[in-house]
Input
Amino acid sequence: MEPLLVIIGVIVLIVVIVGIYLWATYNGLVRLNVRVDEAWSDITVQLKRRADLIPNLIEAVKGYAAHEKSVFEEVTKARAESLNASTPKEAAAAENHIQAALKSIFAVAEAYPQLQASQNYLQLQGELVDTEDKIQASRRFYNGGVRELNTKIKVFPNTLFVRGLGFTEREFFEVSDSAAIADAPRVQF
Output
C-alpha cells in the first residue's frame, strides 16, 4: 500500500509542478502581449503627432513656394498613408514614403532663406525632429517587446502548447530603407 502512496504523491507533485509552469508561462505571455500592444500604441501616437505637424509645415513652406504643388501633394499622400497604416508592415512602408516626402519638402525649403529664418518654420522643424526621435524610441521599445514575446513563444517546451492558447508571433516594425530613417529629416543652414 505504501509504494502506491509514493507513486500517487509523485504524480500529484509532477502535476502541481506542470500546473505552476503552465500558469507562470501563460501569465508571462499575457504580460508580454500587453507590453507589445502598449508599445504599438505608443508608435501610433507618435505617428499621429507627426501627421498633425505636417499640414502646418506644408502651409509654412507653401507661403514661400506655392509653385511646388507636386511636392505638397506627395507629402499629403504620404501623410494619409501613414495615418491609414494599421499593421507594422503597413506602417513601415508608409514610413519610407513619408521620409522621402519630408526630405523633398525640406529640399524645397532650402531654396528660401526667408523661410529658413521664419520662427514658425523653425519651431515646426524642431517639433518634427523631436517627434522623429520619439518615433525611433517607440520603434525600439516595440521591437524589443516583440523580440521577447516571439522568443518566449518559440522556446521549447513553450512552442508545444502556446499557440493552442491563442498566442502567435508578432511582426517587427522594420523599415526596408533603414538609411532613410537613420536620421530625422533636418535642414542645414
